[in-house]
Amino acid sequence: MKILSIDVGIKNLAFCLFDKDIETNSFKIKKWDIVNICQPEVFNCVFIDKKKNVICNKPAKFKKECKFFCLKHSKQQPYKIPTSELKYSFINKQKNQKLIEIAEKYSIKYDQNAKKSHLIESIHKDLENNFLQEISSVNASKVDLITIGSNLKDKFNLLFSEEDVINYVIIENQISPIASRMKTIQGMIVQYFIMSNIKADNIEFVSASNKLKVVSNNGCDNTVNKITYGDRKKMGIEKCLEIITTEERFNNKTEYFNKHNKKDDLADSFLQGIWFINDRKL
After folding, report:
1. Ramachandran region of residue 62, left (φ > 0), alpha (ψ -120 to 50) or beta?
2. Burial, 143: exposed, middle or buried (Cβ in 10 Å; 0-12, 13-18, 19+)?
3. Which CATH number, 3.40.50.920, 3.80.30.20, 3.40.50.300, 3.30.420.10, labels domain 2-39+140-279?
4. Residue 50 has pLDDT above 50, yes or no
5. Fewer beta carbons under 10 A from the terminal one: N or C of the chain?
């Protein structure tokens, strides 16, 4: 039996795919991750730590010649890190005096008698040769729904290509009147599983409040009331960590969770799934 728990998001759509082990008759985590459906591809740092023989793999901030680096490892490259005043859009709007100041500040060679167009060209050329290129972040609120839907389809196709059947797809229900965009994405997720080759036996919307319930070992839930958004996120992370460290079936995910920079969203999808399993006595 497989259960896919989804916490709806745009830049941080979290999911946890549980798979029931036949031998132990208990659920284990098969896949657990965050998906960014704002853009078709998210690049990660390719820096290799030679001592540990591992790839950094953190979200990249800069790139050069098809190689991507996080901020920390960008500083270790033989290229300079560009500042805000070195953005092409900024440079192209400046007058001669400001362009000369920029060239002097960053030791960029230029002809003192050059016209504005030639000064800009000199700065652009130096940026291409000696600076890393910043990876532009995407504003989630400005990405159109068609792009989001297309990205969701492509990424889900890759993530769940090996899944023929998912017995339960549970999705956090979006009920806020100001969350119409998120409600639309919720519908896109449902439509994906209706139309894809994956046989989703049951698709259900579940209340976000279920993530707040403290899941005890015997399957009983105690609703936690009157807490702030920040407290709820902190409590979710703590509860998730408690479960994956104390229950042997989840121990292999402890290091992964501790190193992840979006623990709150991972915890939400995990706890939602755990609540569902206990609530349905699966």
Report:
1. beta
2. middle
3. 3.30.420.10
4. yes
5. C
How far is the CA of 186 from the CAs of 85, 149, 164, 182, in angstroms?
40, 11, 22, 6
Which residue is listed with tokens 């090996």?
Answer: 162
**Fold match flag (2-39+140-279 vs 79-137):** no
Q: Torsions phi, psi of 115, nearest 5?
A: -80, 170
Alpha-carbon span 240 to 260, nearest angstrom: 13
- Domains of the chain, by residue range, sit at 2-39+140-279, 44-75, 79-137
Please, are residues 71 and 58 in contact by the beta-carbon 8 Å criterion? Answer: no
Residues 247-271 have pLDDT tens digits of 999 999 999 999 898 999 999 999 9
pTM, full prediction: 0.74
Q: Which two tokens stand for residue 140?
A: 């989630």
Measured in residues, the chain has a length of: 282
